[in-house]
Design brief:
Layout (H helix, E strand, L loop, with lengths): L1 H20 L18 H9 L21 E3 L2 E3 L6 E5 L6 E6 L3 H16 L8 H17 L1 H12 L3 H22 L7 E2 L7 E2 L7 E5 L5 H14 L3 E5 L6 H12 L7 E3 L4 H10 L5 E4 L3 H7 L2
Parallel strand pairs: 7-8, 7-10, 8-9
Antiparallel strand pairs: 1-2, 3-4, 5-6
């Protein structure tokens, strides 16, 4: 009985997330879950984060949508074309907000801002300790705005509020403190060598990092990508998933409130075929980082 219930909850959650977020036909995959022994504690945990209450009347979130424009060079700006696209409430399919749709022209502006911030700005020239203080302040702001961020994440992504407020948002703050702590602990080595030689290694920031993150854990993916890039003195152009762009825009504003110089982090919202492909192939981007789901691997036959 417990096996059937847990399997039902998990498969229902999986079907809900895929069905709401993607229309692309994937290969059929069968998941089998086997429960051995007394797993009532695990069952309760899964039930708490399941979609079993999705039939209740939707609650109108008490949060203001403050940021829907592109973040380029420290400013929220409209796209060059003026185009927008809707981000939807996965519970109802209703429009939450219309978000600026970036074009290749906007991407070029974002990359140019990141390049200038890296080549000429104060960020890579700061001491590692100064960078870490900004990241620590950012983590404090994340904690201060925990419930508002969690509400926004739940509304745009569809995950349970309890999961966002009690697990994921606190984990984002913890991750940024972790990376802040690493900022002044990454250093080179002096290497013994034969003969009259001095051999030394030096770790330096790589430059402009292009980052593409998916929709399933928007804020955690944000932290895992931006955190280490900033701790090591890089500049970033990030494209969040077009399905869940709101939390990345919100917390990036907090990052600037914490003291991040303009141009170090740029957020471009749009679609993979345009700005995603453009970011991955841009000749002024030094490193590209992205997540690929198992479904995309199957789709690409890789």
């Amino acid at each position: 009985m417990a096996t059937r219930r847990i399997t039902s909850l998990l498969s229902r959650s999986l079907r809900s997330s895929i069905g709401l977020r993607h229309c692309t036909p994937f290969r059929r995959i069968t998941y089998t879950y086997l429960v051995l022994g007394n797993n009532s504690r695990w069952e309760r945990s899964i039930s708490r984060f399941s979609t079993s209450a999705a039939t209740e009347e939707p609650i109108t979130p008490n949060v203001e949508i403050k940021h829907t424009k592109l973040l380029i060079n420290g400013q929220f700006v409209d796209s060059a074309s003026g185009k927008t696209f809707p981000t939807l409430d996965p519970r109802t399919g209703e429009v939450i907000a219309n978000v600026s749709e970036a074009s290749v022209e906007d991407l070029d502006r974002a990359v140019a801002a990141a390049r200038k911030a890296f080549d000429e700005g104060p960020w890579p020239k700061m001491t590692a300790y100064e960078r870490s203080k900004i990241l620590y302040r950012f983590a404090d702001l994340i904690e201060k705005c925990n419930d508002e961020i969690a509400t926004l994440e739940t509304w745009d992504n569809g995950k349970p509020f309890e999961q966002a407020a009690q697990i994921e948002v606190p984990m984002v703050a913890r991750l940024f403190r972790y990376y802040a702590g690493w900022a002044d602990k990454i250093h080179g080595l002096t290497v013994p060598a034969d003969g009259a030689y001095h051999v030394q290694t030096l770790h330096e920031p790589i430059g402009v990092c292009g980052q593409i993150i998916p929709w399933n854990f928007p804020l955690l993916m944000y932290a895992w990508k931006i955190g280490p890039a900033l701790a090591t003195g890089n500049a970033v152009v990030m494209k969040p998933a077009e399905l869940t762009p709101l939390s990345a825009l919100y917390v990036s504003n907090l990052l600037h409130e914490a003291g991040l110089p303009p141009g170090v982090v740029n957020i471009i919202t749009g679609f993979g075929a345009t700005v995603g492909a453009g970011l991955a192939s841009h000749m002024d981007v030094d490193k590209v980082m992205l997540f690929l789901s198992i479904f995309l691997f199957f789709l690409l036959d890789v």
